Amino acid sequence: MPDLTKIPSWFLGANAPKGYYSKFDQLFFASPEGKCFLLKGGPGTGKSTMLKKIASVLEEKDLSTELIFCSADTDSLDAVITSDGKIVALDATLPHAVEPKYPGIYETLVSLSDCWNEEILREHAKEIAALFDGNRKLHEEARRYISAAASLLDEAARLGMDSVHKEKAEKAAIRICAKEFGKKNQRRGCEKQRFLSAVTDKGVFFMNRTPSLLCKKIYAVEDEAGAVSRIFMNAVKKSALEHGLDIITCKCPIFPNEKTEHVFVPSLKLGFVTINKRHNLEIVPERIIHASRFYDPKKYSHRKTKIRFSLRSAAKLIEEAVACMKEAKSLHDELETFYIKAMDFSLVEEKTAKILDLI
Question: Which of 2, 122, 180, 203 is deepest in the core (most CB within 10 A)?
Fold first, then answer.
């Protein structure tokens, strides 16, 4: 069986200040040759195992593949996708419920509800319902802590931004892009969005293998406050698209609509990554760009104490969010035990075999 740790891994959904933030719509590239399998079923019904088997088959066929992991359970797969988007299989249940757009011609619904014994589940209806409700409430509580942390992190970035030489940071990014990107293409590049990190039951989980799998060369921006990296990564993203390069941008899970943390250019095996206490690289960067070189020393010295306070306070709130998610994970594990006892996994294996035949 292929080693799945050698496949680039991401998140496509995460707990965020305004609720669960999903980019699972990024998986839909309907085409006549394409095929999308939407897996529907409860916890512990075998969806993640099916996805791992599908990933293994795609790797055996030497198809460039991406793995999408669950931010609520980092050992569990949420989706498998070929990099060209033509073959997709995903867990289409809550919190990232997905319904078919082109049922029967592009998407195939794979329901696991006919693989469980409903009578066995109904015997424990009250316990199961209580576990679902408890899990949901804990995730809502985690999002409130993340929302509070976001306010403090935003304040730290705002204070830092007041001290930054913005043009100097942009020019530094543009110089590197000019060196690495070559001549401009007439076409505009395309952008895929992913998360490289998320707040999980294991803390802020960073997919540190993925940059080393995608890149031979990485430029790392070391930035705790988050002001310089915003400017730098926006300049890199803009330049790459203008050069006609297809890119993968990774959003910050706490600011999923505003902040780009990392940019990858797969065709050049090149990456631009933000590093800080939450993001530790496995690969040695080509160069580390320290945010401090772009700050006005006098202005920053007046704001440094407040920035550090905001960052420390935000870290404490994120710890509380992690504690909630850890408790939610334990409830989810209990839910799985009920469904596992009610499942006929031989039927799940038959459905898996049919999917593999179609692939």
Answer: 180
